[in-house]
Amino acid sequence: MAIGNNNEIEKKLWAAADQLRANSQLSSQEYSAPVLGLIFLRYADHKFTEAEKKITKKLPAVSRRKIGKADYQAKGVMYLPDEARYSHLLNLPEGKNIGKAVNNAMKAIESENDEIKGVLPQTYTRFEKDTLIALLKQFSNIPMDIEGDVFGKIYEYFLGKFAMSEGKKGGEFFTPTSIVKLIVDVIEPFHGRIYDPACGSGGMFVQSAKFVERHKKRPSAEISIFGEEKTAETIRLCKMNLAVHGLSGDIKQGNTYYDDIHNSIGKFDFVMANPPFNVNGVDKEKLKDDKRFPYGLPKPDNANYIWIQIFLSALNDKGRAGFVMANSASDARQSELEIRQKMIEDNHVDVMTSIGSNFFYTVTLPCTLWFLDKGKAKLPPSPPSPLPMGEGGLRSGEGLPAKGARYRDTVLFIDARHIFRQIDRAHRDFLPEQIEFISNIVRLYRDKDIETDAGSEKLMKEHFPKGKYRDIDGLCKVATLKDIKGHGYSLNPGRYVGVAQKSEDDGDFYERLEGSNKELERLNTEARDLEERIADNVAKLLEQSG
């Protein structure tokens, strides 16, 4: 659920909670985890109450057997002792220490439920009494008769809002939901083992489960969740997030650079992540014998290509990965170029998508979504070059599928920088129909049926009127390995997609400015490449003359 949506329940709850924080002595960071803990507590109490009604109804009227912990566990519900019930906390006498009572409630839940042990916040004595009572009352007003994943949506909404208010720190645990949804929709995790080695608060897992539900399946029966995260506080947020969505997973603490806790090599069907960009200071001496880096370690003090190989090596021979990466990685040179070239020639790269600026809380810069596919090596090669050019700039001829454009040695490039919704001056996201539209371009490329449940039908008819993939200037382009080699193995979509041709009247000034900016970025990239090549050639000449 994207921040800024029209769900009035979340907005009202957030407005009330944020007002209470503004009048307290707590920082956003001190306030966020305990508030999310109260949402979790309200959720756990709701599930417990529902289970209690069902269990009682099934007991014979004359039965004197007391309902116990095992009855609730059989229903897959966390057991809540009396002191942890929400009604108990709401009705405490005025003179009671409310903060201590909530802390004790959290301890009691953990003592009865091993899967949540060490996860729940216990810092409620920091709250002023009136603030804590007001929060308890606010969350008691969450309506229980509305359809859908109400608690999960509220938790997710609050996570996003806290991340936005915490800026850079918030970006360490939260990836904007519309970006996560796009990654999930492109890699399509219908069934299998899902891994996020930089899992933050677990958004990739939550959206994967929602994807499965949307396609009429039960997530617990279809997907298994595995995560790694270095910060204990963030792991707690993740486990609570999973719990309020009715999910569970194997989430472990570790530094992914050095700790492969899940023995990930070749193990997973899907990998999704939003790793930190351009990290320096990674101790490569510790990694020199690590088999997760089949193409070798990059020489620059930059971890981007360490992360990329961690994702790739974790996939099984049919696995798919989708992750966020700094734009600079698409054109990085020297040893990073060598790694990228090998990945491309081994047919692991499937789709590259440019995302515009202001989607993230940590950086305002644009980024790129990478999509890898280990199963691509089993696809047929693209037709030989003598064949005539068909629709979309692809070769046509005998042996091609009836529709579709995907071959072993092609990559789909999408430039989505002009696609967004402006939330406020500093933040953007995607509308549901925009996510579906971008995902549908990939579906056409993969020769799959498109989806229109989110409202993308109009966009699809406008851009793909024949229901088949085609190259569109400024939007998408399928490039062959030969094309990519000719561009120095760059994976920058702007190099391939080009700029849409528009008349002066066909769009407003802002759209024309965006197009000019994209063209300028492309020219700047080419200029930087040219500078590097000249510098390399000069260095070689000096060596020869010396």
Q: How much β-strand is present in the residues?
A: 5-15%
Largest sheet entry:
9 strands, mixed
SSE order, one letter for each helix or strand:
HHHHHHHHHEHHEHEEHEHEEEEEHHEHHH
Strand order of the largest sheet: 3-2-1-4-5-7-6-8-11
Amino- and carboxy-terminal Cα gap: 62 Å
Task: State the low-pLDDT regions, or none.
Answer: 1-6, 386-404, 503-507
Helix segment tally: 19
Helix content: 40-55%
The counted number of beta strands is 11
Structural class: alpha/beta
> Rough shape?
elongated
Radius of gyration: 26 Å
Give the overall pLDDT as a whole number.
Answer: 87
Overview of the structural elements:
There is one protein chain. This protein is of the alpha/beta class. It has 19 helices and 11 strands. The protein has helices at residues 8-22, 28-58, 69-74, 86-90, 98-112, 129-140, 150-166, 168-173, 177-187, 203-214, 219-222, 232-244, 304-313, 335-345, 432-445, 457-463, 481-486, 493-497, 509-545, and strands at residues 192-196, 223-229, 250-253, 268-273, 315-326, 349-355, 367-373, 410-415, 421-424, 427-429, 476-480. It has a 9-stranded mixed sheet, with helices on both faces. Helix 2 crosses helix 6, helix 2 runs antiparallel to helix 7 (150-166) and helix 2 runs parallel beside helix 12 (232-244). Residues 1-6, 386-404 and 503-507 have low confidence and may be disordered.
